[in-house]
Fold each of these.
Amino acid sequence: AQRVTQPEKLLSVFKGAPVELKCNYSYSGSPELFWYVQYSRQRLQLLLRHISRESIKGFTADLNKGETSFHLKKPFAQEEDSAMYYCAQSTGRRALTFGSGTRLQVQP
Amino acid sequence: ETGVTQSPTHLIKTRGQQVTLRCSSQSGHNTVSWYQQALGQGPQFIFQYYREEENGRGNFPPRFSGLQFPNYSSELNVNALELDDSALYLCASSPGGGRDTEAFFGQGTRLTVV
């Protein structure tokens, strides 16, 4: 079965510090990977997807097939980045397998 | 353009009862997926509907069933409720497209089974 692992439940950093949220996936083919974010009292929404190779709100994520990882990074964290982050993998036909999520707390 | 809406927002049911949750998909979206999110966990895929047909199913028993209507809105039905069914149920819609298509989520229905 396909699996997405986010090893950290909570990541706490200070404003301006670099951030890396870890994600590992299990899939032997060509994965479609995403990062979804949920800000306080808001619905789950797409942050970025690997196929777009774009930077959203300063976040980037690189697919490393050798390590089966898709870590989310930002060089300088902002307080407004505090949220719940979920890594997800498409399991075909637009269904998603999610990790258990990492709560990012950015302290002033 | 309206987003994905779910009703009701909260619900309390007794073990053994049946429940129906509803979802209106975003305008122009023909695919609806349902997810169960237990406390402290990520969403788990229940099933997906595409143009009124079930188009994929996760590891959930048959007492979880669904429907999609011609306007692409959807229902999730759960029979013989168990205490472990207590969770946040999320609906997501997406337009036609490939595996990299973005899913747009509703705000969820919080189901409590007592």
Amino acid sequence: QVQLVQSGAEVKKPGASVKVSCKASGYTFTSYYMHWVRQAPGQGLEWMGIINPSDGSISYAQKFQGRVTMTRDTSTSTVHMEVSSLRSEDTAVYYCAREVAAGTVAWFDPWGQGTLVTVSS
Amino acid sequence: SSELTQDPAVSVALGQTVRITCQGDSLRSYYASWYQQKPGQAPVLVIYGKNNRPSGIPDRFSGSNSGNTASLTITGAQAEDEADYYCDSRDSSGNLWVFGGGTKLTVL
């Protein structure tokens, strides 16, 4: 079955960087775009960006331009998302989600289980 | 505009029908998808496209669209439907994505 398994929880100090991984299985990795979404405690979902695992092309939400880097490793069917210069407001659960598309219609399914990143001094 | 607007909270009596709405300019061009999220869990897709349900989603969930508004309807709400519901779609440029702020559904 299609599955996205993310790396474990992280605790980081302000100013540090964190890298979250998302390993895909059960489908052809390079055939589906992957998105990253985060959710601060008690808040809603926030779209961060998208990576095309086939060619590595990326689009970021404007808010995250310059501070977030998404990469992929086709040999391990894994996408990575790194956030630099962490601040307390980056404390959140980070999700990867596979995009499924049919023409102009697209949706996210499935989602990874989420990775809690806590930024605290 | 790149925003999707949802009512923060909605309640429904057990067994009754409830509609959750999502408004935004991008919905004139793109269908919304709907996700259910229960506490401590990842979001789960419940409706996509014009009105499609993934396998395993009960048929009491349905979607509709009109102008700049997408709606998620639960016909005969059950206790287990109590959750947060989020809509999303591409933004007006078609290159980026946006989520609604979420609606907390309470089943009374």
